[in-house]
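Entry 14. Ran structure prediction on the chain below.
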Amino acid sequence: MKRQWYQAVKNKIAQRCVRSRAGMTLTEMLAAVLILAMSAVAVAGGVAAVKNAYRKTTEKAEAQQVLATTVELITDVLSEAQQVRSGGDCGPEFFSGETGDWMRLSIRQPVEHRLPTEHRSPMKTRSPMKTGPASAKSI
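Output, structure tokens:
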């Protein structure tokens, strides 16, 4: 008797499992996909922001390093200057005891070249650097 009762309960449970319609509805599936997509967009935006911040920080550090190196080189050159004279409109000239040359520090501004309208590109080009007079070297 116990055995028959056990078998009957087992069959009822098996039939319920087979007939069961448990699962996810289409609405539940769409909601899950929507939440997953929104999470992916948020993560992608965060990664892009971090990448942009890292690039800017790296560029700033490189610019500061270049500036520090330039200041150090100019300081070294000027500390070895034995004589200074007026260079006219071009600024002062310094006599270097190390090389035996007159030198001038100058800032050169890039000049934009204009091409005819049919050959004009959106990028700006820079002119070649101009050299100073033969009596003084520009650094």
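DSSP finds two helices and four strands in the chain. Will compare against last week's run tomorrow.
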